[in-house]
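Worked problem 6 (solution included).
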Amino acid sequence: MANVLGRLLPVLDALAGAAEQGEVTGGFERVSRALQTELAALGLQRFGTAGDPFDPLVHEAVLCSRTDKAERSTCAAILRPGYRVGDHLLRPAQVVVDEPPADP
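Solution. The predicted structure is:
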């Protein structure tokens, strides 16, 4: 089951990209919502939100920068969401990480 769900992740990425461009409307929007609802019913969970603490077990850091605004390693931006089924990680979330300044 996880293998099949994992193979559908590029489809979800394409839908998300189309939605960001305003291209998911009308009947296509209903199909997109139905697909996402059915995948969630099968246990597919999307994760990764800006502001989440960085966890190398579920996040893949693509870019990292130090900033005075960070008190701990934090996901500043989500470049690609992660997905899991139950405790099984299908794909880590690709993130930009903000880290606190290095100690002198």
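Discussion: DSSP finds three helices and six strands in the chain.
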